[in-house]
Amino acid sequence: MLSLWSCEEKEREPEIVLMKALEALNHEDYDAYLQRVDFGTEMDSVQTSYMKEALRQHLGWRRSERAAVMSIDILEKVMEEDSVCTVYYQYTFVDDTKEAGSQKMVRHGETWKLRLRN
Question: How many CB atoms lie within 10 A of CB 55?
Fold first, then answer.
């Protein structure tokens, strides 16, 4: 039981939430990815469907341009406020190319989410 609690506690960190979201996206688990996203407003089923299609298209484009993802690494977390931070990450592909990115994260209560809107 203590082990489960410890894992849940770690998932409250923005880096862990982002890593799980990026891994879900890479494995085409759009529902798991979207559960970790804060859109700034509630989305209905039509909007969610459009978002999944946009993610599908983006992932298809990335796979046509790059080799398969070998790893995703968190590089740094920069806190901007108590409930806002930016997490920097890097994809490493099987052909040894690398692609860096950043993601703004916001905290609602104890839960960190990816912020896709400004």
Answer: 16
